[in-house]
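Example 3.2
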Amino acid sequence: MASAAAPAKRRTSEPAGLPPQDDVAMLPVENNVLLTIGIMVAALLQVLDSTIANVAIPHMQSSLGATADEVSWVLTSYIVATAIAMPITGWLADRIGSRKLFIGSVAGFVASSMLCGMAQNIEEMVLFRAMQGVTGAFISPLSQAAMIDTNRPSRQPQMMALWGMGIMVGPILGPLIGGWLTENWNWRWVFYVNVPLGALSLAIMMAALPSRPIARRRFDIAGFALVGIALTSVQLLLDRGNHVDWFDSLESWIYLFLAVSTGWMALIHLTSTREPLFSRGLFADTNFVVSLGFMLVIGVVMFATMALLPPMLQRLFGYGVLDTGWALMPRGVGTLIAMQVTGLMIRRGFEPRVLVAIGFAVAGLSLWEMSQWSLAVDYQHVAMSGFVQGIGMGMVFIPLNASAFATLAPHLRTEGSSLINLFRSIGSSIGISIVTAMLARNIQQAHSDLGQNVTGSLTTMVDATAADRFQTAGEAALRMLDLEVNRQAAMIAYVDNFYLMMWMTLATIPMVMLMRKADLTSGPRNAPQDPADLPH
């Protein structure tokens, strides 16, 4: 009797809805924990590099003898190179194998990071940053696909939570780590820090990373060229627009023309050619397509907020670099907590669409709170609103990724992951450009409005004093008054941006109705691949 009862007990411990024989990883590995560490280190380094260099830009500029416009290309070259390379991740993984591509990407990322730290002039730095962007572009999609492929379906929601923590927390830790390295060591260590950690990740993956079967298929060079030009034009328009005064410059009109014309041609080509750059099966999956739209919004809201807060805290509230990092840290803590809790809720059968809607509502609530800020706001309010926003974003990320991959064929995962990461990257560029342009315009408008109303007895007294015997004191008083008007105008502009992002976040919630219900209690299924559906 005891022996008969034991198997029954084991059967009840299996995930609901998934037969025990199907709860097997697509690519089993012997030491899954060790491999997960290697994958996560690589993914975290790549995400950190999207923000870690930002705080070192002023130090780079003086050290390399560059102008403000030239040094901006240190960031632009990385973003543009990543956008160009990421769409071909799926094809390269099929062509040379996911293992070779992943290991080669990490090795190239480590080497280019070392070259960035050794750069002697701005030209070398821009070139090496572009190399870093190209090699790093493949890391995020390959790491996400590897986390799914090497784990049992019952563990995949947990793995997505773990991977998502690195992706969401990385941009928050970047300014803090970059500021500490720059202040205590040298700006070059912002790049050198990637070398030992990258080497550790490389060694683990060379020892333990399996590979998907190679699937030969024709490279869609026309599709790649059109998509590459369109993405490059969009990224350059978004990144350079504020520097060249947007559409008052011919440069912006050229970018817009190239983006629209090549984007339209790419759409026609990808829907009509026999072997397109992206498998059309991706866009036949409703949940995946809706998830792309959500990822765009996450990129806008998350990265735009992260772009606004550090300069606001430093310029208006006098925070140092490290103090700013500590003030933003609770956002990451909220994300970590929410992702773990959401992963457990998914395994227990909670409806993912409800979790996504609640997550966006919580993020919208935090942005509403931020839209009520003034120059009197204290550290606790900044930290708490960030914590709440982290909870909201964490609640969205896991069910969204799980839903996107739940009904996606296994051979489409790498391509799907590259598109999801690409849309998040584009969203971040769009968000940062929107808030940067609006901030400059709203500061001017608010300064003009406030200046027109500073007409009381104070200005009359100062003018009279300045015209009489206390001319120096009067001019100093007027300058102090103008500085205060500038601070108030800047605060109003920041609040306006928070208010805009709040409405963008809340307006996204109805999109959950477009998602189809998917069983995520056991993660994405490793359904057998139909040979006719595989790329040729």
